[in-house]
Amino acid sequence: MELINKYFPKLSDLQRGQFSQLQALYEEWNAQINVISRKDTEHFYERHVLHSLAIARVCEFYPTAQVLDIGTGGGFPGIPLAILFPQASFTLVDSIGKKIKVVNEVALALKLKNVRAEHLRAEQLNESFDFIVSRAVTQMPRFMTWTRGKIRKGVSAGSKANGILYLKGGDLKEELANYSRAKVYDIPRFFEEEFFETKKVVYLKA
Fold it and tell me: Which of 119, 130, 164, 165 lies 20 to 30 angstroms, CA to CA, from 56?
C-alpha cells in the first residue's frame, strides 16, 4: 500500500480504503480460485495494482469515459483503474467464468458501482467504448482483431484521444511493426521499481 500512496498521494479516504482492502480480498479468493500467480502475491501492490495504474500515467479518464478491459483475468487493470476513476464506467470481460466471479465479488466488496463484469469473449460484445485497456493477453495483431469496431471516434473522453492502452513488456519492435501510429511509454518513466524495467504502456489512437 505504501507504493500506491507514494505515487498517488492525492487519493480520497474512500479510494485509499478500497486500495488497502485489495490484497486481503485477492488472497482470500486466490485460495479458492487461482486468479493471480501465487509467487506474485507477496508483491501484489507492485505487480498487479501499481502496474495497472501505469495506464493512468499515460491517460486520465474523464467522468464520461466508458472503458473496456479485455481479458481482465481477476480484474487487472480494470479494478485498480475503476477505483482511481470512480466517475468513469468500466466493463471487464473474460472468457473464464470463475475469474469473472472473482471480479464481481471484489467489486461488490469494495462497493464499486462503476464496474460491470461479463463472462464472454470480447468479440461477442456488441458495444462501443471510448477506451480499451488490457494487460498482455496476446500479441498485438491478434488483440487488434478483438477490438475491431469497438472504439468510438470523435470527442475524446480522456486526456488523450479515444483508443487502446495496452500493458506490454519486452522488445515490441517486431510486434508493433505494422502499427506505425502506436506510441510506447516506458513505465520506468513513471515508477522506479526494478520490476518495471522492461514494462511499457502501448497507446494506439482510434
Answer: 119
